[in-house]
Each structure stands twice: as structure tokens, then as C-alpha cells.
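Support case: adenosine-5'-triphosphate complex. Customer-provided input:
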Amino acid sequence: MDLILGNAISWLFQPITAAYALAAIGIALHFGFTGLLNFGQAVFMAVGAYGFSISVKFFGLGFWPAVGVAVIASIAMAFLLGIPTLRLRSDYLAIVTIAAAEVFRFIVSTTSAQPVTGGPQGLNQYSEGFYAMNPIPVGHYKFWVWDFKQDDLFAIAVSWLVVTFFAVLLAILIRSPWGRVIKGIREDEDAVRSLGKNVYSYKMQSLVVGGLMGTFAGILFVLPTSVQPGNYGTTLTFYIWTILLLGGASTVIGSIVGAMIFWSLLSLTGDLLSTGVDNGTITFLTQNQVGAIRFMLVGVALMLLVIFRPQGIFGNKKELYFNA
Amino acid sequence: MPSQIAIGAAVPGCAKVDPILIADNVRRQFGGNVAVDVEHVEIPRGLITALIGPNGAGKTTFFNLLTGFDQPNSGDWTFDGVKLAGVPAFKVARMGMVRTFQLTKSLNMITVMENMRLGAQKQPGESLLRALIKPLWKRNEDAITARAAELLTRFKLDAKSDDFAASLSGGQRKLLEMARALMTQPRLVMLDEPMAGVNPALTQSLLEHIRGLKNEGMTVLFVEHDMHMVRNISDWVIVMAEGKIVAEGPPNEVMKNPAVIDAYLGAHHDSDLGTEKQAKGN
Ligand SMILES: Nc1ncnc2c1ncn2[C@@H]1O[C@H](COP(=O)(O)OP(=O)(O)OP(=O)(O)O)[C@@H](O)[C@H]1O
Ligand SMILES: [Mg+2]
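Agent response - structure generated as follows:
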């Protein structure tokens, strides 16, 4: 039992959780504050993951230059998606982002791209430069039921540092006059235009900044693991949306807590079910079905939450009354 | 009096002594329907001009075209000598030509005060990088807030300052939109039915306020169906029907113009040109 609990609790601070939280903060800026429907946050994450890992493996760049390449690629992606769509109704961005994410995933996973992107197998072993910066002495660090290596601790610390940095950045931005214009655009872009603001430019800025958050999330996501093209499908985007809505779309802290709850719940239900199957208390499931069932259970839990607390955990209920 | 505003007789499209806005051959077609077809019109500077006409006359569409919210099929117009055709809406607003909307556009999920601050121009904190450093925009923000508070008091919205705009009534939203437009410190303010839904007691003080704008040197162009109000505050009246300018002149003369009576009665017979009301009122 301690192990199951320990597992679930460890998901509160895993680098993966941090990555999802950061990607969700990005769409909080897009959707929650600017009203942009980005259904392709996966593509910004993929740009981060591939931009970084290809730079290291294929071009032999060091850690920081590789991060720089990912950042430039992310900005280019935002312009590519934004230029044709941001003058149009918000639905167009939604369609284009979702399509771009799928196109990107197909391209990187084709076998002809294998020498660069690793094709269907993806890429691994590009993190030496990152771990070389680890100041924590080599060894095993044991707390309660956990046993971390120095590199695990480093990845956790760096991930949450990056999340904190962007969360604070966004909190400052949305409280500034810039944030006021952004929120105005969410409410009615023509009104904001009539007050002399270049709405198109602000939407582009929001797309770039939120996309960059997705890109850094993509890098955090792959640093401790490997790059798998299959990870960047629409499900990734929808998990991030789930996290966003769970925490409350127009909040910053909501994305972080949302990611923690999402991953702990997933781990907890999975572990409880498979223990049940193992010791015979659950007879109607096989071990293989547990993986699918836990997503269904999480889905039900989220539905309940959305029904009984539609504004998300940290959202302001007033906002919903008025929108209705 | 009229001789001081128009050059020569007050005929449709007549030249003005000191025009701030001049439009030529502005035409906008929706499918086969010609919504606006204005050959020539000039708006006199520093005065209050009313743009009237029956429903569907093209008044709102004309506003949209002039302010860059819609593109005409053809036409040219200048504001203070600057050509505006093809200039995007936000630049038109920055030049000092600001409009409100017939269907109110309050920014619901931000507060009344934030709505007002959004109208301010040249706030450095609206740039992404400078937004991060509060000392760069704090002083501007304080000045903007003080100005906004003053306007809100004048529009009797000061008590609502920290509420979401969504909590305002329809009339209060009209007031907020007008106050917000004034935050931009325009030279020409274009109001599309500013009094629709505003209660009579407040209308009176709003009329005073619009006169106040004129005294501050602003030019006002407004669309209004309430002829009583048109008579009351406008210096000049322009009448549109079926997309065209059909009459112009000082309020009292325009109301007697057969073309105007035609335009109104032709469109809907129960319309009241304010003559009756005026008679009863006095
Ligand atoms: N977006 C549009 N698409 C098609 N037709 C339009 C559009 N906007 C306006 N029209 C048409 O153009 C004509 C003029 O409309 P407009 O809204 O300018 O009238 P208005 O003078 O402002 O009327 P009201 O006093 O009722 O506000 C109408 O016949 C209307 O049906
Ligand atoms: Mg209209």
C-alpha cells in the first residue's frame, strides 16, 4: 500500500508532470487569457523534443545551442500557424493547429526521415550535456519508499524551476497592461481594435509565448526519457486540455495543480486495479485491460468534476455565470 | 447660422467651411444590395453632427467603412487631410477617430475600470517586454487610472468601477462604451445610437456631456433615431436613405425637408420626426 501511495505521490513532482503543467500553462495563455483555440499544443512540444534532440544527435550541438534551435523552431512554427489564421475566426486556428500536429508527427515518423529523426523508433541518448551540468554528487538518495539517483533529482529540480519561471512570467504578464489587452481580445477583439490596439500582433505574441512554453515542456518531457513520435498525437493535446480545464482555464496555478492531480490519479487507479487483479479481488479484468480502464476511470472522475465544478478547481465561478 | 457651417446652400453633399472628414464615392455592396453609396459628404469640424435615416439606411455600414471595420467596394475619404482608405481599424483609432458600436461591445469578464484603462493610448506597458518591468509603466498607469475614474464619475459608473462589465445593465454598457472611447482622447468621436436604452434622466446629463465634448474642441458624429435628441444637441444633420445622402442642413430646416419626410414615411409610417414631441414638450 505504501508503495502504491508513494507511487501516486511521486507523480506530483515527476518531470513528466512538470512538462504537462508547463504545456498547459501555454494553452492557459492561448485559450484562457487570449481566447485562441490551440488544439495542437502537441506540435509545439514535438518541436521542442525534436528540435532539441536532433540538434544534439544529428548536428552535434551542445545543450544550450540545442535549446536555442528549439526556441527558434518554435517561434517559426507559431508564425507558420498564426500568419494565415489569426486574421480569421478562431475556429481556423483550431483546425490548422490540430492538422499541423498530425502532419508533423507523420513527417518525423516516416522511415525516410530515419537518419535525422530516428523515424518510428525515435531518438534517445541526447541528454549527456544536460546531466553533465548536474551538481548533485553521484549516489542513491532514499526518502520513504523512493529511491532517486542524482540524475533523477536533477531532472526534477530543473523541471520545476522551469515551470516556476514560466508561471511567474505569465502571472506578471497577465497583470500588466499587456495582459489587459490580451484579455480584452478574449472578450471582443473588435472592441479592442476600436481602441487603437493592433489585435493581430497581440494574438501573434500570445501564440508565440504560449507556444514557447509548449516547446520548453517538450524538452523537459524528453530529457529524462526518449523521443517517441507516437507520444505527439492528438491524445497528448487533449490530456493537456483536460489538465487545463481541471485546474481552471483562466488561472496560472490551475495548470500546475491540474497536472499533479491528473498524473497522480492515473497512477493511483492503475496501481490499485492491477494489485486487485494480481491478488484476485478483481476477477473481471485482465492485467492488459487495466491500462485502458484507468483512463476511463480518470475520464469519469473528470466528468464529475466538470459537472460539479465547471470553472475548474481554481477558476472563478462568476465567470461562468456571466458567460452562460 | 447655416452659412457659417456650409459653403453655399445646404444641399446633400455640400462643402463645409472647415471639414474634418471628407468622403467621396464610398460604395459598399452586399450581394445585389447596395448598402452605402455616398457620393460626397463633409463633416464639419468642432461641431455636433447627427446622421439620421430609417432602419437599413446604411448608417452603421457607413460608420464601419469610415473606421476601417469594413472595406468598401470603392471610395476615398480623408480625416484631417490624411487618406484613410485601406488603413486598418486600429490605426484609424490611433489617429484620433474613434467609434462606438450600435450593438454594445463591453468587455464582460474584465472590470469596468480595466475596460476604461484599455482605452488609453501610449501606455508603454502594453508592449510585451516592457510589461515585465512595472516601473516602466506604473506612472502612466496611475495617470490613466485617475483620468478613468474622473470619466466614470461623469458617467455615473464610479460605483461600478471594480465590478465585471458583465454585471452592468444594457444602458450602463452603452455609457461605459462611450466613456471608454473618450479614454482614447479622440479628435472625432463617432457614436452609433449612444442613447438607445439609456433612461431619460441620464439622457439629459449625457446630452450635456456631449455638448461638453464639443466645448473641449472635439468633433462629434452620431447616429440617432430619437429626433428630440437630434434637435436638441446637433448643429448639423445629415440624412441617409437607401445608402445615399438625401438631405443636409441645420436640424430645424432638415426636419421640414420633403425628402426627409419621404425617406422616413416611405420606410415606416409610424415614425415620429420629433415635431409632435417637441410641440408637446414645450
Ligand atoms: N454584413 C452584412 N451582410 C449583408 N448585408 C448587410 C450587412 N450589414 C448590413 N447589411 C445591409 O445593409 C443595409 C444597411 O444596414 P445598416 O446596418 O448600415 O443600416 P442602419 O442605417 O445602421 O440601420 P439601423 O438604423 O436599423 O441601425 C441593410 O439593408 C442591411 O441589410
Ligand atoms: Mg445601425
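The longest helix of chain A spans residues 253-278.

Case will auto-close in a few days if no follow-up is received.
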